[in-house]
Amino acid sequence: MNIFLEEMTNEGISYTDALKNAQSSGFAEANPTADVKGFDTANKLAILSRGNAGVLEQYTSLLLDYKNQTNKFDLELPTTFSEALKMRLAYLKEDMNVYKTLQVAAIQGINFSPAIINEALQLQETHFFEILKTLQSLNYIVPVTQNVYAFKNTLLWKEIFEIIKLDENYYELNNNLISIFSEYTLSSNSIIAVMAQNIELYDEALEYWTQNTRLASYIGDTNLYTISQKQTLTFLDKTTSDKKELIENSIGISLNDPSKAKYNFNTIDEAIDYILEGIA
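Predicted structure:
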């Protein structure tokens, strides 16, 4: 189907002649029903997407990207979702302001603040809102509220994030965002801690997760407390802290993890004092 559609579009020949050319060249069957009605392409898309509507949307969006860029229909579809997104993002780089907007959005997470993005990129406001509309039309993002947008699904965000982590300006963008978020009063410093981890600023990440631990203890948020402690364990050995063993043991005690808690205590008060020293 792609071949004779391309001939009709670019060479201006009739549908009948284009179909005959495709059949004589072996690109269409003698009974061209499957080719003409697009069943072959539809079957490929169904197989590649494995029935996932979000993946299917990105593959079909890739076909539209390719058509808009080349005015052709002969794209060989990539076999993995990651490769499909890499191709889409390559097209997006035709306008680096659009691409950078998506980068900064992905660094923030599946939900993100457009205001924070524009504070980082310093674009003219009307132009920035046109960029957001462009990313919506390309099936990357959707508005959630007036102040919050989101990627269309978690898988899309995760794959884009893994791709943009390899960009040369990834470290710089992360640093800019850390500086911006540091000026805000946040419900927790989790997002800054994650950004610091992303660019391997492990001492800074330890400080932010420690702040979160204190906050969680104060407000009684057991979920935030547990997350902060477990995140710290993932990179503790990469920090320069001279309290590594102390912190690891205090986390093991507070999370009731015997593999991390190497010391035994006679009283609860002794354990509490040890934990408090670890997060001091």
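Summary: The chain has a mean pLDDT of 78.
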